[in-house]
Amino acid sequence: MSTPTEDHAAAGEPPDETRPPAAGPPANLVTAAVVTCLGGAAFAGSLGLGVGSPAAPGPGTWPAVVSATLVVLGVVLAVRGRRATDAERFTRTALLVLAAVGGMVLFVAVIGVIGFEIPTALLALFWLRFLGRESWRTSVVTSLAVTVVFYLLFVGALQVTIPHLF
Predict the structure, then answer these.
(1) Spatial contact of 164 and 151, defined as CB atoms under 8 Å apart
(2) Burial of 10 from C-beta contacts in 10 A (0-12 / 13-18 / 19+)
(3) Are 97 and 74 contacting, i.e. CB atoms less than 8 angstroms apart?
(4) What confidence tens digit (pLDDT) does each residue in 136-151 have?
(5) pTM of the entire structure?
(6) Interior angle at CA 87, CA 85 and CA 92, nearest 5
(7) Of all residues in the chain, what percent carry a pLDDT higher than 90?
């Protein structure tokens, strides 16, 4: 197995000592399997919504297109993943990605119960302050501004039927 320095040298690039080690083929295959499975599950869910026809698309049309794209990309990653050297090994910083996804899952879970304003402000605050390490002032002001802009855009201008408090 080659080192990151050898990988850069083979590609004709100068070595980057700050770069994490390469993930390797097994990690690439696991990632491809996860992407393919998530895409397949989402595709099955979109079929349950009804995809309609090209003349009259149903509510599951775009989810079906996106999830089918995920399946195709997962298969491509599985095929090319054995030779890829640019994927990085998972480190502790990958937990930040999991925390961001967890925050989004919680956001989706509560938006139907309490509206989108409070979850939007809290999600933006969480991402800015704890994941982005912005100052408290920047995090609070930006999260409130984002919530107001989203409200004006989606509820006021576009009149989207999403649960909201006001």
Answers:
(1) yes
(2) exposed
(3) no
(4) 999 999 999 999 999 9
(5) 0.60
(6) 135
(7) 49
